[in-house]
Amino acid sequence: MFLKNEENGNEDYFELVEKALNTAIDEFEKMKKQEGKELEKDLRKRLDLIKSAVTEVENRNPEAIRAYFDKLKMRAKELTSDLIDNPDRLNMELALLSEKYDVTEECVRLRSHLKLFEDAMNNSDDAGRKLNFISQEINREANTINSKSVSSEISHLGIQIKEELEKIREQIQNIE
Fold it and tell me: Whole-angstrom Cα distance, residue 103 to residue 148?
């Protein structure tokens, strides 16, 4: 109110301050938009890294399961001579054990969560909160992949996914 008082000759000062303030607000909005674009670019890059790691997990999973199956089979032969006489039962028991370590379902769900994440980035008004929730789901799948993994290579990929996800979570905190 003091600046609007024309009797005191402050009208020129008010116009000057108003113009400076409007310019600052416009520049701030431009900066926030540019920051948002850079943030989006970073998030997309990290999603691509996670997708590559999931593809690598999917590619290595069958061989890891086969190798684990063979390892179990050798151990079982060493420990249980009575099952050797019944190879069909031995193979069935080992197949059931090795199936517990298959991460195919987790990879499918992880890909679904990554798609949801990208959709939320593209279409959501309240992207920050939604992206945070989806990143929790991605983390759960990565944890399950790591806990089920019988391959050090797949475990390393699971850790890589979690590392990228942590970087994404840090960036999400900057989304308004």
Answer: 7
